[in-house]
Design a protein that fits this description.
- With about 260 residues, this protein is of the alpha/beta class.
- It has one domain (about 1-260): Divalent-metal-dependent TIM barrel enzymes (TIM Barrel).
- The chain contains 9 helices and 11 strands.
- The chain has a 7-stranded parallel sheet. A two-stranded antiparallel ribbon has the order 4-6. A two-stranded antiparallel sheet has the order 9-10.
- Helix 3 (about 65-80) links the parallel strand 2 and strand 3.
- Helix 4 (about 100-115) crosses helix 5 (about 140-145).
- The longest helix is centred in the first third of the chain and has 18 residues, at about 65-80.
- The radius of gyration is 18 Å and the shape is globular.
- The structure holds fe (iii) ion (2 copies) and zinc ion (ZN).
- Zinc ion (ZN) binds near residues 165 and 212.
């Protein structure tokens, strides 16, 4: 993975901690991990941003689904200790008509049980599009989860801002980036913002859809990305592409974005 990243001009990357639809995993090979750590050191990589499976739902209305999500997240965090200083991003969950407040409470309870003092990973809550009963479609909902996680574990939490999701959630990133970041700062605090998923959107502002588009080819547009990658509050964060693309396509998007970053 480190070599693929280098070959396309990247200096960070995301990876799934297991099959994104869930499922089993094998133990990490320590030699593989060391090889990656060496590449990252030699090339000054930013922290890696792992992604937990999409299917995890810590606030499902079904006990067995919640239990599975807890076990998976706990196991992924245990294995990630091999790559200290990385991020593990996850989708907070869908409350399945139990209500936002109940969902927020279940997610925070799970994090209180799963995280531990001294862990080497920072867990990132992803900003969501607010599709269906998704929790995390507003900055306030993410703040509510974080507030209910106890210190010292709260210090292990951050947020990953997904530009497609935030746009689809109704925050006008293209028209008022400063305003959106001020709203984030007021609700969550910009100090918690640790990573950005850079995606254009196939749908209009506030559509609550979550369909990613290639950079500059969607509703956000290239000018919005020029402002995003150069904004003082964002420019030093790891940027991850989740656009519908292949490896050569990602190389092009990275060079396009590096051009915008100047
Ligand atoms: Fe995601
Ligand atoms: Fe994302
Ligand atoms: Zn998405």
């Amino acid at each position: 993975m480190g070599r693929d990243a280098l070959s396309i001009g990247a200096d960070t990357f995301a990876f799934f901690t297991r099959n994104p639809r869930g499922g089993r995993t094998r133990e990490l090979d320590q030699a593989d991990v060391q090889g990656l750590i060496d590449i990252m050191r030699a090339h000054g990589f930013a922290p890696l941003v792992a992604h937990a499976p999409y299917t995890l739902n810590l606030c499902s209305n079904r006990e067995e689904v919640r239990q599975f999500a807890r076990q998976t997240l706990a196991d992924d965090l245990r294995r990630m200790e091999a790559l200290p200083g990385s991020y593990l991003n996850f989708h907070p969950g869908s409350h399945m008509r139990q209500g936002v407040e109940a969902g927020v409470g279940m997610i925070a309870d799970a994090l209180n049980d799963i995280l531990w003092e001294g862990m080497a990973t920072t867990v990132l809550l992803e900003t969501m599009a607010g599709k269906g009963t998704e929790v995390g479609g507003t900055f306030r909902e993410l703040a509510a989860i974080i507030d209910q996680v106890n210190e010292p574990l709260r210090a292990r939490l951050g947020v990953c801002l997904d530009t497609c999701h935030v746009h689809d959630a109704g925050y006008d990133l293209a028209g008022d980036l400063d305003g959106v970041l001020a709203a984030f700062d007021e609700a969550v605090g910009l100090g918690r913002l640790r990573a950005v998923h850079l995606n254009d959107s196939k749908n209009p502002l506030g559509s609550h859809k979550d369909r990613h588009e290639r950079i500059g080819q969607g509703d956000l547009g290239l000018d919005a990305f020029a402002r995003i990658v150069t904004h003082p509050a964002l420019r030093d964060l790891p940027f991850i592409l989740e656009t519908p693309n292949d490896l050569p396509g990602y190389a092009q998007e990275i060079s396009l974005l590096r051009g915008l970053a100047g």
